[in-house]
Amino acid sequence: MTVADLELPLWSAVAQDNNERNPVMMRMGDAVGNGIVGNETVGYFVARTFLFLTSLGIKGEAIRFR
User: Fold this and answer.
1) What phi, psi does 27 have (nearest 5°)?
2) For a designed S-S bond to 37, which of 3, 13, 43, 66 qualifies (C-beta 3.0 to 4.6 A apart)?
3) 33 Cβ neighbours under 8 A, 6+ residues apart
4) With 80 as the cut, is the pLDDT of residue 66 above it?
């Protein structure tokens, strides 16, 4: 699995502006392609951070990236 295939909870700027409370589960590759994540480098490190946090035992559904 590559980080582009990793599905994680994302909370887009538009969702934040609309006061939406629930993040959307999305593949990192799709998030970068749709402009939700600014570029591939940021997407890579967000995905790696998610993997690190879940390896520590933090539940994936408790993590939100803004």
Assistant:
1) -70, 140
2) 43
3) none
4) no
